Amino acid sequence: xxxxxxxxxxxxxxxxxxxxxxxxxxxxxxxxxxxxxxxxxxxxxxxxxxxxxxxxxxxxxxxxxxxxxxxxxxxxxxxxxxxxxxxxxxxxxxxxxxxxxxxxxxxxxxxxxxxxxxxxxxxxxxxxxxxxxxxxxxxxxxxxxxxxxxxxxxxxxxxxxxxxxxxxxxxxxxxxxxxxxxxxxxxxxxxxxxxxxxxxxxxxxxxxxxxxxxxxxxxxxxxxxxxxxxxxxxxxxxxxxxxxxxxxxxxxxxxxxxxxxxxxxxxxxxxxxxxxxxxxxxxxxxxxxxxxxxxxxxxxxxxxxxxxxxxxxxxxxxxxxxxxxxxxxxxxxxxxxxxxxxxxxxxxxxxxxxxxxxxxxxxxxxxxxxxxxxxxxxxxxxxxxxxxxxxxxxxxxxxxxxxxxxxxxxxxxxxxxxxxxxxxxxxxxxxxxxxxxxxxxxxxxxxxxxxxxxxxxxxxxxxxxxxxxxxxxxxxxxxxxxxxxxxxxxxxxxxxxxxxxxxxxxxxxxxxxxxxxxxxxxxxxxxxxxxxxxxxxxxxxxxxxxxxxxxxxxxxxxxxxxxxxxxxxxxxxxxxxxxxxxxxxxxxxxxxxxxxxxxxxxxxxxxxxxxxxxxxxxxxxxxxxxxxxxxxxxxxxxxxxxxxxxxxxxxxxxxxxxxxxxxxxxxxxxxxxxxxxxxxxxxxxxxxxxxxxxxxxxx
Amino acid sequence: xxxxxxxxxxxxxxxxxxxxxxxxxxxxxxxxxxxxxxxxxxxxxxxxxxxxxxxxxxxxxxxxxxxxxxxxxxx
Lengths: 699, 75
What we know:
The complex is a heterodimer of chains A (699) and B (75).
Chain A: E1 5-11, H1 17-25, E2 29-33, E3 40-47, E4 53-58, H2 70-80, E5 90-96, H3 100-112, E6 117-122, H4 127-130, E7 132-134, H5 136-143, E8 146-149, H6 158-166, H7 184-193, H8 199-207, H9 218-222, H10 231-256, E9 257-259, H11 267-275, H12 280-321, H13 326-343, H14 346-362, H15 364-378, H16 386-391, H17 396-401, H18 409-418, H19 427-438, E10 443-444, E11 447-448, H20 449-475, E12 485-487, H21 496-530, H22 534-538, H23 540-547, H24 555-568, H25 571-583, H26 590-598, H27 605-615, H28 624-629, H29 643-655, H30 660-670, H31 674-698
Parallel strand pairs in A: 1-4, 1-5, 5-6, 6-8
Antiparallel strand pairs in A: 2-3, 3-4, 7-9, 10-11
Helix pairs in contact in A: 3-10, 5-10, 12-13, 12-14, 13-21, 13-27, 14-21, 18-20, 19-20, 19-29, 20-29, 21-27, 23-24, 25-26, 26-27, 29-31, 30-31
Chain B: E1 11-17, H1 24-28, E2 36-42, E3 49-53, E4 56-60, H2 62-65, E5 68-71
Antiparallel strand pairs in B: 1-2, 1-5, 2-3, 3-4
């Protein structure tokens, strides 16, 4: 095998960097995490001419090499560490033709690190429309680089880019300007103290608070005749450096780029006039949210019903086809039911991520941030908290990771703490099945009661998030500077390939991530429900037959009695009975208790657990929903899932903190167990109290 | 005058940026002395402000805008 070329894709946010990555790698990509941190690591393989292969890594978007977040740290850590296995042979800096000036800042910094660099100017299809023309030869000469003028949308220039990557050895490593001239004396000392090091690299290490392996900050203090400057001095120098870079870029573009100002007036202006309008802006945002929720409820119900009934038939088929025995039961009742509980989520997760990625890709999300900032600030949040709160409707984990670009620590912490209140997709199946059991069908003003209930639950989730943010804002005494800068990118028609890949990747991450937990718990539950200690379980047949000897039961009825007696005295039954006193005031029986306890690991386990518990011992082909509807409340009589207990359950799931993965992420992002523990205790206690009140009032 | 005094649709030139109050990130996005700035749109209560600085479109809060000195050409 020939050696692979390591390529790093670097660029500002909103330059279409990920489109370039998708264009180069196609489906040959995988998403993982950097070791020890939750920053997404996207890498892929690209086939180059003459059988050469390139390993491409899509680094997080950044405006400069002066990192201010974990994601941005990843970029400099890689570029400064020559020993990293991903250290690039060639850096590909992606820029947007309409924002070339700003995009070149990062480019000039990377050039100073003397890494062979290709400049990609993306969205070239917009040049004629915007009246932009470029003198590529002049720019290549001034910037000491090779330029690939491409359009990922029109699929132009990708082959040329591949060609340039293949010939990376011919690229110049000369810097295009010398940053050291901002303070000659200081940099001279630096050069003398560390003669073998790259000057700009030293500068980055001095000004950043990141650990760069062997050359960390401590080494600088050890050198006697070299002293680091104060923080304020350093900041002033960084500012000077930025100004100097812009002077160079302005001078270069003055000659290398011409913009005809009389060309077409921007679509952006016309759209922004409406979309960021004081009244229309909010109305449109509300309408978009409504559409999303209605769509998720309506559109995904068809594939979900289909999946539900298919798995019921599959389970039945397995039982009838395979020879009887413990293995067949495990397969039919544990594994297949458990798998059904995972697969059933796919339509909704896919729809949610579809909408979220369209909103992000089109540039609309930044407008929402702009519109909502003032309102959110009242509650101690930032306009940027809207993105986590909306993506929280898909899953709290990526949502909490999305808080990283909130500049103020207090606003960020509050956002992290309240995001788990938003109705994540794991709650949806619980909601859907309970709503369909206890809320009557029928319509008011053309909207079904069931859809309205679901929307109400979403609103309750947002309400709880915003309300608790307000309280936290009053309680938390954290002083932090609140900076707020958000880029307002150009409006773009979302590219199908990007949206499709996002949906695919997120759905896959869910199925394999959460799926593993659900499947494991389903199997454990099946064992616990199928075996038990003592006479009552092992001799169930005789006990029940004797008990009902006087009543003339049919064989079928007797069989059912035996099975339910067995379940009640299985390991899980015993555990369920033990916690029953605590949950009876909420209107639940021990089976729901089991489902609640097991869903503290992950709420999506609820339906799967009930499916597993109820399918143990049932012979007929039935959907989960039918089985649940048939359950009888052992004390009050009547259906177990009635209006009162149903509402109580819905509210419990709306508020309780039942997701271990979220707790783990909060721990990582806040760097302490304190905050996730608060979340767990306070949210769950609140859920219990609200559910208790609801049941006692409604019963 | 400061950036916070700008009216919608009005343009100006940045003269000075108070370095203690302004994050480096904002400078890197083009908010530097000598660059032109235009107020594109304001949210209710004139906060945050949607700006076009030197061709870069971004939004900042009023509390940040008061630390950026500008002058308008028609004064």
